[in-house]
Structures are given as structure tokens and as C-alpha cells.
Here is the input.
Amino acid sequence: MIKPSTRGLLASASLITAFGPAAALAADTAADGAALAAEAAAEQPERDYVGEVILVTGQQDGYSTQDGSTATKTPTPLIDVPQAVATITEDQLDDQAITYLGDALRYVPGVSVATGEGHRDQIIVRGQPTTADFYLDGLRDDAQYYRPTYNVARIEVLKGANALIFGRGGGGGAINRVSKTAQLGERAIALEGALDNWGAFSLAGDLNLPLSDALAGRLNATYEEFGSHRDVYEGRFFGISPTVTARLGEATRLIASYSYEDDDRVVDRGIPALDGGPIRGYDRTFFGDPDFNRATNRLHSARLRLEHDFGGGLSLDATGLFADYDKYYGNVLPGAATATTVSLSGYESATDRRNLVGQANLVWQADFGKVGSTLLAGIEFADQDTGSQRWNAAFAGPTTVALGHTIAVPEVSRGVLTNSSESRLSTFSAYVQQQLDFGLVQLVGGLRYEEFDLSSENLVSGFAAARKDSKVSPRAGVIVKPVEALSFYASYSTSFLPQSGDQFGPLDATTAFLEPEEFENLELGAKWALNPGLLLSAALFRLDRDNTRFTDPLTGVTELTGAARIEGFEISLAGEILPFWHVNFGYTFLDGEVTRATSSAPAGRELQQVPRHQFALWNRYDFTETLGIGLGAIYQGEQFTTLSNAVTLPDYLRVDAAAYYTVNDRISLQLNVENLFDADYYPSAHGDTNIQPGRPLTARLGVRMKL
Here is the structure.
């Protein structure tokens, strides 16, 4: 992001991001550099790893944040939010040379990143898998694609069920990206280039121009070409995102944004399993056809946000989003493997989706004697039209082939159409939330009413159906603050998910008549601001998932008797330990199992891709004004790939490092090394037979120029 002028130029110039977002590059050319550690009292580069309280579309700096506005939709400090929230700020994205959402989330304990069939984001938050609980500036972004970060100011991970704020889904949590916006009164131009040892490279630019005292424009753009250790893997990505900010008087602001993204890449389904774990010795082998295994995505997204301050503590914001997604992918993928053979299968899929989302929030802040009050009232509507097709792959020869470092895939082409469907989803929500501040004690409570109306038609079978659900989702919390810098909280929240799933596949004779799944989250926690720039958080939680399907083996009747529970503990530390030392640390313990038999697993089975122990740490340490280093580590305990509990991903430890060098006030360099010790590891899977090998040692060199 483009930083305020008060932060200067030199410090951020040392924050080159090898694959980092373009705007961040321009932005991070900020003020004075770090002094020697021995001169801790001297002036340091102001990276501001805590940041100020802001609204959803505002700026954010540092490795930590005091901003809890996304969790409450009100200007609330994070220390007063009765919920665990993790933030990956632009400074951290830059320092780690991260350009895609999935890579950023690997540093968030409590979140597992699944393989997502090699063409989309798929995560597991507190044991709950999802492909749809993603948001952009607080609005749902539920299509299946890889989300870039070139135009992202920060990423927020809100853990636990919370339908009051986000609506249906989000049983384990929600992922919100805060976009970069044009900044009034600032001029900045930055360019960035990066290259890694596998031949991947990126070019990015960020331009922010004041057009008048009350008008500013900003343009973020990036172009990338992919490469990796995996055989035949390649692709490219182009993204461009212009924004305009206009001040319409002293109390009114209008922000208009547009994004176009074009992604074309090989679909890599990874490697098969053997003997209950990843097959060994084939980490580079591609088990597919590079001509057939392709994924393309074209995204158009337009957003408009109006903010107005009426005075007297009363304010309004209204936001609209229109998004058009055009997605295609083809797969040849491995199945069962032996010591000498592997089976193959394949399919193609195409999806067109159009989303229209509107949201308005009215916030009233007032004091009644010694009691502070913040009242939120809001409405949201959404319409979604989806058309999808799926074809089986047709192979010209046997689909069980010899296992080798090069797989001889029979000639493959499009086969029989197995699905063609159209669906229409409409939702309407109204919600209210009251926050009361008594000084020592704060209370938060509210309700969301949501109507969910889905109709669909299977164009192959001719089956058409519709279902409408209405749900009320409560949220309640209490915060106790014995001193301003310390809070203890307890909270209760719920959410729900229609039986059609998070991507709303066409209704069938079963799902058309079943009530939604339900989520219930109980949480106890504490937050302590050790200093103005350093926040320590801890939480205990229990998440129950009910109304999951179970088919009676005797009657064949599907019932909503299944259930699962996950319990855990997490602790995090984020911010500025010293002016020249910044850190983001987190640890999570998770224990999840099926508590009542479902159609997928009997009671007692462990939940899929839920490691008991997760640990993540990232440090940045500046020795001088021109030289700094970064060091981080990710540990993930062993986990089952699916509810079958038949295949295990082994535990792993990955160490990353970085070096930052400021050449002058216009040029800086950054070297990032991922997997410094070249460990063999397997971070994710999609099912029992598609396991993704982790990247070996990967070095990225980036340069940034400020004009």
C-alpha cells in the first residue's frame, strides 16, 4: 500500500517483495531506516506493525493490527472483539514475498490449506473445509479460483462461526481481503520485478496520483509466469485493478474499484498415495497430460462504496459488488497406486457465475451517561446465477499404466457429458448488533435474519427443484477489561450451511428436502497489548457441527443425525518487540472427530486435514538503515487426508529466510529463500490419492524502484 507521507521513504524501500503486491511496493518506501540494535534508542524505520483503527477499506501497516472493524462492522479496537482474529498485513506479505492467498494462509495456525484440485483456493479452518468462505472488503467472493494479493492491503482470518457478520457458511471462520484504494493527496509510483531459481518471474507496478484536492486514482497491475520443480508445470497470470477515491464534501467519500484477472495454468493434482502415505521418490513426476490438464479463469469485478458521516456519531456505508467469473479446467489425475502401476481418470468442467451483492450498514455511536453504546443495523442482498457443465475424459488406451518418473498417459479427449445445470440463488439478510461499554465490562449481542432461496435444474436428467430456508443466527459476547491494555472475553456464535453445499450444486431429491447444517462456537480468550505495537492473544474454543447427513443402512432413508466436534487452544503474538524487531507468531492445538455417524464416516473418526499441532513464526530484524534479515518456520503435525483416516500426511518443519538491502532512496533489493534446508514435505491433499509435494529450496530475488 502507499504509506502516508509522514512515514517517509527510506524504510520501506528496504522491503522488496520478490512476488509481492505491486502497490505495497510503492507504499513501503517509508521513512527512516532501522538503527543498529545496539542503538535501540535511535530512530528506527517506522514499519508500524500494529497500525491504526480503520474501516474495512482503509490502510493497514505492520505485522499486527488494532483494527477490529471487520469482526464487528463497527470501528472497534481488536482488543474489544470477543473472537480470535489473525491478520496478515501488507508489510508481512511484502517481507515474505507472497503473491497468492494460499501461501499467506500457511502462516496462520488453525488454518490448513488443501490442494483444491490444483486450480482453486480450498482451506480448512478449525476443522471445517470450505471453498466459498472468502470475502473481498466484507462482501462474499465465493467462486473457485486462486486469489492473488497484488491489490490487497491485508488479509484477515476471523475464526469461529459468525453468521451475524458474514451470513451463511463460515462455520470454522471466514477469510477477508482488504483491497488497496486510491489515497487522496499522495503521489507515488513503484515498479517491481522478481525471478526465482525455477524460472518463474513477475513484474508489477503501482501508481497513485492525486487528480485534485478531492479526487485520486490508483492503478495496480501485475504479470507473472509460473514455474516449479514439478515436471511440465507452467502458466501465467495477468491482473489489473484501477480504483478511484472521491471526497464528496467534508462528510462523504466515494470509492470505485474494478479488477480484471486472467489466469491460465497447468492443473497439477500431485502424486498418489501408497501404503497409507505419499508415494516416495516421485515428487517431480507429473501424473497427468499437460495439454489436457489446463485451468483458465477470467474475472471481472466492479465495486462501489459510499461512506457518509451524518454527525452526532451516526454514519452510513453502502457497498455494491458485481462479479463475473468464467472458469474452465481439465484434469487427468492419479488414483490407486501399487509398487509398479498407477490408475488414471479424468474429467473436464466449465462454470459461468455472476454475483451481485449489496450491503448497507448504519452505525450509531453515543454515550448515555457513563455507558458507551455502538449500535449496528444492516441489510444485505445477493443474487447469484451459475451455469456448469462436466464431461468425463475419454482415454484411447488402458487407464492403468506403468509407474515411472515419466507417466505414459494414453491419448485423452472430451468424453460423455455427465452434468449440465443451471441454478439461481437469492439471499436477503437483516441484522442488528448492540455493543455496550460499561468501563470494566463490555457486552456485545445481536441477531441476523437470513432468507436463502435456491432453485436449480439438471439439464441432463431434467430434474428441477427449489428450496427456501430462513434462519436466525445469534451472537453474544462479554469482555472484561481490568485495565485498558488487557481484556478477557467469552462469546457464543452460530452459523449455518444449506445442504446444497458451499458451491450450491444442483438440488437433488435428497438435498431439496433437508434442513441446513448448523454450527455453534463457544470461545474463551484473552488479549493483552504488551506495548502499543505488540498484541498477545489466547483462546480456548469448542465448535460443534450438527445436522450432517446420515443414510440409514437398513431403511436407506437420509436423516440429519450426524455431528462433529472440534476443540482447541491457540496463542499468538504479533507486532513490534523492539523498533528494529518485528514478529508474528502463532500456535494452535486442535482435536476434532465425528461425534455421531455421518454418511461419510462413523463416530470416532478424526476430521480430515486437522493437524493436532500447528506452529508458525516469522521475524524481521533490521541491523542498520540499509540491511535487515527475515527468518521464519512452519510446523504442521501429521494429519489424515480424508475422513477415511486411511492416508496420513506426515508432519513437517519448513524454515524460510530473507535478506533486505536498501541501495538508495529509490532502489531496494530482497532475497527470499523458501524451505531453506530443502526438507521433503507434503503440506496438502485433495482426497486420499492426490497429495501435493512441498516446494524444495526456492530462492527469489526481487528489485523495487520508486520513481
In short: The two ends are 15 Å apart (CA to CA). The domain at 5-706 is CATH 2.40.170.20 (Maltoporin; Chain A).
